[in-house]
Amino acid sequence: MAKILDKLIPSPQKKLVKLRQKRNWLIIERDTCKEELEAKVNKKLSALEEKFNKKLQKPAFEACDKALYIQSQNLDKLIKYDRKNYLKLRAVNTAAIKKIFKLTKKGESFDSVLENQKGKLDKLNAKRDSFLQKLEAKKAAFLEKNSQSTQENYEAAKAEALKVYETEKQSLNQAMQEKLDKKTAKLNAKITAKEEKIKAVKAKITNVHTLPDDVLLSVKGLKMYFGGLKAVDDLTFDVKKGEIFGLIGPNGAGKTTVFNCLTRFYDATGGEMHFKNKLDEVVSLRDFEVHDIILQGISRTFQNVEVVKEVTVLENLLIASTRQYQSTLFGQMFSLPLLKKEEKVMRAKADSVLKYMGLSLYRDRLAWGLPYGVLKRIEIARALMCDPQLIILDEPAAGLNETETNELAELIKKIRTDFDCTILLVEHDMGLVMNVCDHICAISFGRMLAYGTPDEIKASKQVQEAYLGTGGDE
User: Fold this and answer.
1) Residue range 299-339, pLDDT digits in tens
2) Residues 6+ apart with CB under 8 A from 90
3) Rounded to whole angstroms, how far apart are CA atoms 393 and 92?
4) Nearest 5°: phi and psi at 264?
């Protein structure tokens, strides 16, 4: 019953998600409408150019150098003739060589074969000479008929065409600007109206949370129980903005369960998870459904590769962007203009991400059968499709060799800088964790063992005993 009521009367947080999504697409439409209008103008101008070029063909011919023109025409014909003639010459020579080879094997004379070959070659060369004479005769007849050149007619026609073209271009650009101003003003009015609605909904939210300026994610007292099993038990940690944060622990420590709670795959038994979203607002992640988390600026990869192998690499990235679409089911069924605009924006974005990740070569290939390292990169590329504030990487180095792991370490650092985002990392490869992480939280049986810098974690006796092992264990 609660779920039905939640659908009929959504919470203020859910209203905010929908309103902001609509506002964001209005902004994208406003920012891209100039490009769309310019494309239409350029299409009309290209058609106009083609029309004038056809009109100018006759005066241009009258103004050209006739001798140079006919010489170029004859050269093209001679090249085509020689291509066909070469094949005939080659056939004659090949046939002669085969016959000579057979006669030589038998010990017989092949003089008659050479004589026959020479006769055929002479005949082909004679035909070529005859073709050249015909070309020269046509050239002479053409020059006699078209001896005069009238440059004045061509220049006058060209000047007239340019004048009409420039007038039409100016008219189209003026009409485009008027249309652009009108459309931009209309979209700005809609954006303002959405902003007012957003303010009104925000005013109804009473449970306002705060975080320190440098903290992006705060987890306090997180609990996740499966019956009597305490997978996560009163876990608390903070992730600072712009850092690479590592979560480590032995198998079964509850690392992936923490990720699933953060992304709402699991509904945590207890505790709080506060996040500073794209709009610099502090929200409780427990207020959102799993499909709304991505709109707050959190994306993730999975421990097992979850690429859709039956579709192309590009389509995998487009699938990752579906939650950002504003088009309704009705709009998608009938492919309405809004859907086409959204698809155009997302395809351009996907191409940009593929280029950044070095995956452009695989753009139109099915994900099925691609190397494992490439599949891992595709997963990270999908995570970048929603402009995330926080990227959660669940064992990204699993199954990679040493070279690929080193490349991954550099890629993670590069993504953190280039996309101005924070990265939360779960990984068993201690070399990778110690190399890239700014702070690390070590857990065991769902409880915190230690928190600190990589050097502090290395020095922790509890971590050594529970995760890294001790000298006695060896």
Assistant:
1) 999 888 889 989 999 999 999 888 887 777 676 776 777 77
2) none
3) 69
4) 70, 15
What are the backbone dihedrals phi and psi of residue 222, each rounded to the nearest 5 degrees, phi first? -70, 130
Structure tokens at 180: 């652009």
pLDDT, one tens digit per residue, over 354-364 is 999 999 999 99
- What amino acid is encoded at 422 in this protein? T
Number of H helices, E strands in the chain: 15, 10
CA 137 to chain centre: 59
For 58-91, b/e burial (b = at least 16 CB within 10 A) is ebeebbeebeeebeeebeeeeeeeeeebeeebee
Please tell me whether the overall predicted TM-score, pTM, comes out greater than 0.70 for this model: no
Q: Is 236 exposed, middle or buried (0-12, 13-18, 19+ CB in 10 A)?
A: middle
Q: What is the pLDDT of residues 184-221, one digit of tens each?
A: 999 999 999 998 988 888 887 766 788 898 999 999 99
The whole-number pLDDT of residue 276 equals 92
Fill in the amino acid letter for 264.
R
Segment (H or E) for 383: helix 372-383
SS3 142: helix
Residues 6+ apart with CB under 8 A from 398: 303, 428
Tokens of 60: 């241009």
Helix or strand run (H / E) with residue 245? strand 244-248
Q: Please give the full DSSP string across 198-242, using - where no structure is assigned.
A: HHHHHHH--------TTEEEEEEEEEEEETTEEEEEEEEEEEETT
CA 317, CA 350: separation in Å to the nearest integer? 6
Kind of pairing between the strands at 390-394 and 229-240: unpaired
- SS3 for 313-372 is HHHHHHHHCHHHCCCCHHHHHCCCHHHHHHHHHHHHHHHHHHHHCCCHHHCCCECCCCCH
Mapped onto helix, strand or coil, the DSSP state of residue 27 is helix
Helix pair 12-63, 337-356: axis angle to 10 deg? 90
β-sheet with 244-248: strand ranges across: 298-300, 390-394, 422-426, 244-248, 439-444, 447-452
Confidence of residue 467 (pLDDT cuts 50, 70, 90): low
Which range, 65-74, 152-161, 195-204, 267-276, is most confident?
Answer: 267-276
Is there a contact between 277 and 389 (Cβ–Cβ < 8 Å)? yes
Distance in angstroms (rounded) separating the CA atoms of residues 458 and 467? 10
Cα distance between residue 396 and residue 398, in whole Å: 6
